[in-house]
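Appendix B. One record, verbatim.
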Amino acid sequence: MVYLERDEVGIYNPTYFSIDIVDDHFMMGGKKYILGQFMADVANLSTEYIKGLLRLSIRLFQNYSEIQVAGGYIKDNFVKAKEQVNEILNYIQDTAPFCYYNIDQARVLLDKYFCDSSYEKYDSLNSTEDISLLDDANRLLKSFCYIANDIANFNLVIINFTAFIMSGGSRKKDSLAADAFVFFSSEKYMKYFETANAIPYMAGVNLRPWVTQVPVAIPDYETESVTIARRLYFTRFMDFLITELFEALSHGHYLWRCGVCGKYFLMTTARRQLYCSDVNEEYGVPCSYAASHPDVIKKKLEKENKKNSPIYILWQRRYNSIRKNKSNGKYSDAVSAEAKKIIDAKRDRARIDFDYAKNEYEKEMELNLIYEEAIRNVDG
């Protein structure tokens, strides 16, 4: 008899993970994500980043192929494979959406199947347990081989699908469903995705994801209530991403491409928002603000970029004082460097936060306050 799973049972590493779907969001690793968050992150991965990940994965896949031809185990290739997987983990660990996963847990699995004690078992295969261990090791390698392929392929899918939605212009929930039906029933698009498979000889886009679903009880100890949710288990990124895409669409969540910066952002309502709310690196203000206040932004940036602006003048004074105090030995190199970082951060904030620049910037730039903060940061 298998009892109803509880919330703490979920797995969340890049090779084998689960999510708990509740309403229009899901839980993974104890954290809550809006449906569509991951597809937005994948859509915003740069071509250069994806190519770098593909290069690492292709090397692993070539090694994995040699291992399979040899019957599933070559010690030297296994040692090399462990290094290759760690290179992939190092590459993805700080980038969304990979950083949401438990990368350390993936490394623990890697150390379990690719170590001297396991190699001894693979050499002998004296028991069914040894054979099972070897099979698990090969499945682990295969799952890592597929990460880059799935990400590259889904990136292509979601960018094209978003362009298709935007070309229609309608953002109603039933329109999203109709767009999805037309797009994913299109022989033109499906053939395109098939022929554009990032890594040949590996499975491409999969619109029939392999998913294991079980009920799960999620207790809320503050309200003393329990929610019954769906726990979905995945062994491949593509299966998860396709599932999230259609789960998001069913709740009216979709991507739109910002008309200012070109990044993809998640919409969860039918509002006709055309621009994201992220701070634009070029303009120094949110894209939505830049789009609605082009004249104000132009004048503001022209003013603040001048060296005679109040923001710049105050920053220059503090910078000169910090440099002088460092030369005189009044403060250590570490404290001086930290003080410089603090005034730079406050200057940058004042450039994009008009209320802060007007009401708080001058007070927070007082030299004694800067040094107090710097000393606290350095001393830990």
